Amino acid sequence: MHDQFDVTLEDADLLGEVELTTNLIIAASEADEHLSPAEIDEILGVVPTPRAADS
Q1: Among 10, 17, 20, 40, whose Cα sits 20 to 30 Å from the Cα of 26?
Q2: CA-CA distance, 41 to 35, in Å (whole number)?
Q3: Which residues contact 31 (CB under 8 A, 6 or more apart)?
Q4: How far does the chain reach from its first CA to its final CA, in angstroms?
C-alpha cells in the first residue's frame, strides 16, 4: 500500500529561502537592537550596486 504522505521533497530554491530566513531569525534573536538595513543585507549576502553618477 502506498503512503501518500511518504514523499521526498527537495526544492533547492525553497531550501535557500529557508536558510536565509533562518539566518535572519537567529541574527535578530541575538541582537540587542533592531537590525539595520546594512546588517540585513550582509546576512542575506546582498551586494550593493554603485549608483550611476547624475548627469
Answers
A1: 10
A2: 10
A3: 39
A4: 70
How far, in Å, CA of 47 to CA of 2, rounded?
Answer: 47
For residue 4, pLDDT over 80 is answered with no
Calculate the alpha carbon distances from 21 to 14, 37, 50 in Å. Answer: 10, 15, 26
Residue 28 or 3, more confident: 28
In tens, the pLDDT along 6-35 reads: 777 678 888 899 999 999 999 999 999 999
Amino acid identity for residue 55 in this structure = S
Return the C-alpha cell found at 46.
Answer: 546582498
Backbone angle region of 31, left / alpha / beta, with phi > 0 → left and psi within -120 to 50 → alpha: beta
Rounded to two decimals, what is the model's pTM?
A: 0.64
